[in-house]
Amino acid sequence: MNSEAKPLIWSIAGNDSGGGAGLSADARAAAAFGVHLCPVVAAITVQNSVAVTQVEPVSPEVLDAQLAALAADMPPAAIKTGLLGGAAQIAVVARWVDRLRQANPQLALVVDPVLRSSTGAPFADDETLRAYRELLLPRATLVTPNRREALRLTGLPEGTLEPALAAALQAVGAQAVAITGGDDGAAQPAWSLDWVQTDLANGWLALPRLATPHTHGTGCTFASSAAAALALGFVAPDALVLAKMATTWALRHGYAAGQGAGPVAAPMGFGTQPGLMPLMSWGEDSDFDSCLRRLDGRQQLNSLPEVDLGLYAIVDSAQRVASALEAGITTVQLRIKTPPAAHAADAAWALRLDTELRAALAACRAAGATLVVNDHWQRARDMAAQDPGAAPHLALHLGQEDLQALGADGRAALAATGLQLGISSHSLWELARARSLHPWYAACGPVWPTLTKDMPWRPQGLDNLAWWVHMAGAPVVAIGGILEHAQAEAAAASGAAGVCVVRGLGEDPALQAPGWRAAIARGRAAARLPVPALPHPSLARN
């Protein structure tokens, strides 16, 4: 018996007499996340799978009484709103959000602005729209309109692009926006695209579009899934990755329940389906069609060779590269950070860097090993261009901030080098974004607390590492805080393609490397670590 309390979310929405959308869909989504949903009836609809024939908002007094009863006993970690019925009901919800946040400033509010039914019935007049803009959007942690709803909320003209629509919604107070596009396949018929705009990441979340007639409750499922993920502690872009996964899973399990579109239904288990892990663009432009050609049914890279990086050394000088090679290590990253005082025009610094890189590359070529150049990809590109025989011994590693700073043109130039690219990933959205660049590997970290750099990320732990290995669709490298052989053994047992060691190599890698390799071998021979139903949050939600 599991007596542990589940996170609570309130759904304040309409009751669908046909059981497809509204509170019915919200309850199914919450169950898939393992959270407890309290269904608060804001409106009663008379509908079936074909049409909505009547909407009867509950009185503001009855809505207020429902919320008061819950607040006294079952305060929420997140609130999701759906069909609210009118401006008076919106005002009640806004007042309760303010009261609840006095006790819990972290309370998340997800606003799904249900302005019309999927069959076309209107649900919101001008007064209701004004109440959304003035009362709910300024309080929203996340708002999840589709494109038509975003246009109505903002009053912007048809043809306005999603980033501008999201910016307009943020301008009136919404912290994060996801403009869902699953119902609009005109621009990208092969893809279901949602535009995500948050303080941490912007871009398109993408999964291949599913051909199904059973789509009733899709928007409700997406918003409720995001609310459930926020209640579990995930930041907005990570919550939206999980919402995308759960909603696609629900579409896969939709079924007929009448003459019209049937309901979507997400059973538990979506979080361990590799085919549900979305891609995420780095900005407004995307080339998801090329991604689709490179992904198989499990969303793993086609024709991906088995990658075994084993003991992966990270060092800070050519001399340390040579020492690692003498110890038999065949994958060595040279991490030389540009000093704060140096800049592109600093000839002395550039000469020192080139000297180190060329010496390290020569040593790796002689040893038949791979030099992974951290950050300085242009110099690696130039060395490969000057000596094509060097390219098989060269690879790159970049962090996400550096990749973002390159812009679309810079990332295209990076891809044109043809060099294998490893990418850091610390969160779900970073993993989704890394996947769009077809990485040689995705680094998952920090697995354990690390002192080598100051970072906001919580330790991933072995549970998230196992999840990364199972879900990434690319080889995964474990990095961060690996100081003991037992840690390397456990990391290898996750199935990670490589285990990064920095300080653990000591002064003489030749003395330390055998112990690390033996630990990795023991981990590879051990039973695989279990994959959790969901990862845990790796960044605290402010």
Structure description:
The protein is of the alpha/beta class. The chain is 39% helix and 17% strand. The protein contains 17 helices and 18 strands. The strands form two sheets. The protein has a ten-stranded mixed sheet with strand order 3-2-1-4-5-6-7-8-9-10, with helices on both faces. The chain has an eight-stranded parallel barrel with strand order 11-12-13-14-15-16-17-18, surrounded by eight helices. Helix 10 links the parallel strand 11 and strand 12. Helix 16 runs parallel beside helix 17. The two termini are 33 Å apart.
Helix/sheet category = alpha/beta
Please report which band the strand proportion falls in: under 5%, 5-15%, 15-25%, 25-35%, 35-45% or over 45%.
Answer: 15-25%
Fraction of residues in helices?
25-40%
Number of separate helices:
17
- Mean pLDDT comes to 92
Q: Name the shape in a single word.
A: elongated
What is this structure's SSE topology?
Elements: E1 8-16, H1 22-33, E2 36-47, E3 52-57, H2 60-73, E4 78-81, H3 87-103, E5 108-111, H4 126-136, E6 142-143, H5 147-154, H6 162-171, E7 176-179, E8 191-197, E9 202-208, H7 218-231, H8 236-252, E10 279-280, H9 288-294, E11 310-315, H10 318-326, E12 331-334, H11 347-367, E13 370-374, H12 377-386, E14 394-398, H13 400-416, E15 420-425, H14 428-435, E16 441-444, H15 461-471, E17 476-478, H16 485-493, E18 498-501, H17 509-525
Parallel strand pairs: 1-2, 1-4, 4-5, 5-6, 6-7, 11-12, 11-18, 12-13, 13-14, 14-15, 15-16, 16-17, 17-18
Antiparallel strand pairs: 2-3, 7-8, 8-9, 9-10
In a nutshell, what does this entry contain?
The chain is of the alpha/beta class and 542 residues long. Helices cover 39% and strands 17% of the residues.
